[in-house]
Every structure is written in structure tokens, then in C-alpha cells.
Amino acid sequence: MSAVSLKTESWTIAGRTFQSRMLLGTGKFSSSEMMRSSLEASGSEIVTVALRRADLSGGDDPSADILKYLDPQKYLLLPNTSGAMNADEAVRLARLGHAAGLPNWVKLEIHPDPRYLLPDPIETLKAAEILVKEGFVVLPYINADPVLARRLQDVGTATVMPLGAPIGSNRGLETRSQLEIIIEQASVPVIIDAGLGAPSHAASALEMGADGVLINTAIAIASDPVRMAVAFARAVEAGRAAFELGLSPSRRFASPTSPLTGFLNS
Amino acid sequence: MSFLPLLEQLPVRQSALQMRFLSLLSEEKDLEELAAEAQSLTRQNFGKTMRLFAPLYVSNECINICKYCGFSRDNPILRVTLTLEHVLQEARYLAQQGFRNILLVAGEHPRFVSEGYLAECIRQLIQLVPSVSLEVGPMEEAEYRPLVQAGAEGLVVYQETYHQSIYAEMHTAGPKKDFAWRLDCPERAYRAGFRRLGIGALFGLAPWEKEALSLAAHAEYLLKTCWKSSLTLSLPRLRPAAGEFQPKYPLTDREFTRLICALRVCFPQVGLVLSTREPAALRDGLIPVGITMMSAGAHTEPGGYTGVGTESLHRTEKGKAVAVTASEGQFATAQFEISDERSAGEIAQKLRQLGYDPVWKDWDPVLRS
């Protein structure tokens, strides 16, 4: 590989600075050990974990020991409220996670439909308002809805996390035109969450100006999750570097390196 | 709304999804190809994970006559309803095995298994395990509400057979005779607030393709009408049980595998359950194909895990309780024989070997509204 560094700008969420622009989810891995190795290989600094899978009683339940595999000194543990079907449940879950010793950061996910896991905009906004007031750093998972993104931003969420496609679908940036508007209008970091199934999808998200991406299924179910984590990490780096450098505009026609009308200058 | 009119029209009117499902059931579709598609969709939607649960039988009293069931009212079996303390003792054993998801099962007998009894069982159980589901006789929506409030998360009810004349032939006495009452049960449970719904058909009672089509149609209907609940499908095949019932329409392993794959391809996000009725080798083979939830180390008799409940054991003769003599045995009779006898630990180890993460806990009671 080339010795030239691709080092990109760091970024900040709620006053905390990160270098890696890839967040990793912890579901669907074949084992907690595999999840941990993939996380290490990815270079991610933020890792989300479903509170419903953890032991929130403050005990040490061996049947719910996912947190044991995540070093809070190394990673920002971002508890998520997956499983919550409305604002009340999400708020309760967030409070309980914090009370159990997890950070006061929360990835707010409210999906009443367990099939496509699409987020409920009304309940998400309601829960975000409550949690922000209580001092939580709120990162809401939303559909790619620019107005909702602004409403959440106004409420004081730390980021917005619009989806590229439904969770686990691996279909990429199907909501591209809406994402472009969200990115253009955002005053908080935009993290594309859900649906990114290939490193090229992640690179594309960063190229278009997203601040970060969250990946889970595509890495967890890969035949070699560790190497796939690295593939995604490089794509994210490449996409961000291209964004920082500025991509040349695309054209409908070829642009000859020797100008066709050069003779006029001679 | 009810699924009944749609079910009755099924022979002449099928949705696009149902037609696709039927085409996948036919031998023309290469099974290996179908299995590969099923595996890929399962991994995409559920990852390399398997939810584990254990049934906890609290009573084998029953007022129904179901020709195929070991608990059928007329079977002269040894019966018991566990006391609350005994239920907890069984649950403690299961929790020690690792289970955080228990399916509370009972025969249908309101005198022994009342809503009050069930509600108290649930309230106590959720202190030990976060997720409790029920498989008990169908109830009214208003009767379900206190059970949801007590902490029950899921409700499982199998239609047994969707073939109405065979249903009538199989269920000759008791409230279970009412086909439509049972058919509409998942919707009553949904309205009462259950978050997980499980349906299923007992394969062996009617021609399997028709049964499968009806089950798929029911699933399609429930995904539209009960959209906030997670749906699981169970495909129990009849096993030897008290009463010596012989299945008239057996489902072969190959057909069973095809059925699982076809359901997965048509319903990528729906949970597919496999119980210990099936033998170990077949279960191991089906894990990577499309199954997402398994029981392990199961007992289908009340008190089966720890041997509790023997002091109130009795035999029933035509519904009347008769004292048990020592020669008749010490324990309550099981609903059916299980086939995969491996312990929870052994199943978890096998899953890891196959590259699957056994998931014990994926629900926290704090989520309950």
C-alpha cells in the first residue's frame, strides 16, 4: 500500500472528538468474541449496544453478558433503545441504562413495526425532547425526512441518524436525494444509519458529505467479519478523504485532455 | 375483522405471495437452491444468532377432547396443576440453565388454570426471567389484559389444523370445538397488548401443502392486521403421545425442510420455531437453513424439570379424579415425547460449533408500557 496517509479530519459529537467515522453495531454476530475482534479491526470508537440484551439490574448475568466484551475505556458505548415501541418505553429504557452505569448518551430507536424496523417519527421527536431536557446526549435514528431532521435538531439532539435503507437490508443509499437535503441543512453531524451493505455504500455516504456511518449487518454476517470490518473502515476513510479533497464535478459529456477548440488560441 | 372469510376463499382466491409460496412448495423448485436462498435471508434478517426458550408446563388438566393430544380429557393419564411455589421452583431450574425466555404452557381447564392463577404465575416468574410467553386455552381480550399487565410478553396459539372438517373430527368436546374462536385468538391477544404472537399448525392432521398454505395465509393476514407484534411460526409434527393417535398425513423430513425454506423466503423477517419434538440430527441440519428460535432440554409434563407436584398427582377417568396407586408412576404424564434430549448447555455448545450465537436474553421488562 502507498505510504501517503489518508488521514482525515476528526469530528465532534456533543463536545467529544472522534477520529473514526464508522460506528459499529453489536447485533447478529456469531459470537461476542467475533464481535469484539471485528470492533477492534474496524478502528471504530463508538459502538452501539441493545439495552434489551444486557443485564440492566446491575448484576452479572452470564446469559446477558454482552457488555463484558466492550471496554468502556476504549470505546464510547452508545446504548440503543431498540425494542421500544413508543416514547415512554424508550425514555424508560434510556434512564435505566444510565442508572446501570452506561453513559448518558443514547441512540434513540423507536420502531413499532418489528418487521421492517422503520422508526416512528412522532414518538422519536417526543422522546428526544424529554431525553434532551434530562441531559442525555441523543442520537436519533430516523427515516430520511429532512423536516424531521430539522425538528430534532431544534429540540437539541446531538446528531441525526437517517437511514439509507431499512435495517439489515444491505440495499445502500436508497434515500439519497432526501439524505442530500438533510446533509445540506444540518447543523449537527449526520450519521447514515441502516441499510449500508457494501463498503462502496459507506464510501458513497461519506463522499456526499455525511459525517459518519453506522454499520452492523454487513459486517456481522460476512463470511469473515474481521476483514469486512477493515474493508468498511478503509472505504469510510477513502470516502471522507475524497469529500475533504473535493470531488471533481460529474459531466454528461467527455472532457478531452487536449481541448477540441485549442486551435483557436494558436 | 376475521381471517375466516379469507381462509374459506383460499382454494379459489390466493394472493401473489400465497401463489409464490405454493410454487416454492412444489418439487419443481430445486430444494438446495431454495435452502441457499432461505439461509441467506435468515442471516440477513436475524444474523448468526438463535433465540433459545424453554417450555414450562404448569398443568396437564384439560376439558377438551382432542384425538391427537396426550392431555385429552378422556385419556386416563396422571395429572397435576403445579402450585405457585412449584412453578417457581421449575423456573429457577430453567434460569440456572441459562434461560431468560420461558413459555408457560397449560392444558385448557379454567377451574385449575384460571386467569388469576396465570397472572400470579407471570408476576412471580418475571422476577426470575425477563421474558414470559403463554400457551394456554384461548381467552377473551378482557381476560388477556391482566395477563399482559402482569408482564406476559407473548402469546402462542396453534390452530392445530386449518382444515375445518378435520378440525371438527379431531376436537369432539370442550371449548376448543369452536374453530373460529380459536382462529381469531391472535387478534384478541394483539388488542390486549401482547407484543409477540406465535401461530402454528400441527402437521400430520391434514394434507400438508393445504395446511401450509393456510398457515402462510394466516401469517400474511396477521402481518397486516397485527403489525406491531413480532410474529413467529411453529410447525410441530405429530409425535407419539398418550392415546396412541397415528398421524394420517405424515410430513417427511424433506417436505418439512422445504416448508421451512419456503416460509423463510416468503416471510424473511418472521421467526421460525423448532421444538425438541424433532430429533437432534434434523434440528442441527435445520439451524443454518431458516430456524430462528429453539427450545432446549424441554420437558412436556408439569414438574418435569425438578420433580415437583407429585403430592397432588391424580389420574382422571372420564374427567373424574381418581387416586393414584404407586404402581402407576410418580410423575405427571407428558403431552408428547420429546426427541432431542440434549440439555440447554449442549444445545448452546452445538450452536457455537455451527457458528451461531445462542441468545438467551433479548427483552427487558422495563420495555413494558
Question: Please, could you describe this protein's structure?
Answer:
The complex is a heterodimer of chains A (266) and B (369). Chain A is α/β, with parallel strands linked by helices and 266 residues long. Chain A is built from eight helices and ten strands. Chain A has helices at residues 32-42, 87-99, 121-133, 146-155, 176-185, 199-207, 217-220, 225-245; strands at residues 11-13, 16-18, 22-25, 46-50, 76-80, 105-108, 137-142, 161-162, 191-193, 212-215. In chain A, the strands form three sheets. Chain A has a five-stranded parallel β-sheet with strand order 5-4-3-10-9. In chain A, helix 4 (146-155) packs parallel to helix 5 (176-185). Chain A is globular, with a radius of gyration of 20 Å. The model of chain A has no long low-confidence stretch (mean pLDDT 90). Chain B is built from 13 helices and 14 strands. In chain B, the strands form three sheets. An eight-stranded parallel barrel of chain B has the order 1-4-5-6-8-9-10-11, surrounded by four helices. Chain B has a three-stranded antiparallel β-sheet with strand order 3-12-13, with no helix packed on it. Chain B has a two-stranded antiparallel ribbon with strand order 2-7. By secondary structure, chain B is α/β, with parallel strands linked by helices. Chain B is globular, with a radius of gyration of 20 Å. The model of chain B has no long low-confidence stretch (mean pLDDT 91). Classes of the chains: A alpha/beta (266), B alpha/beta (369).
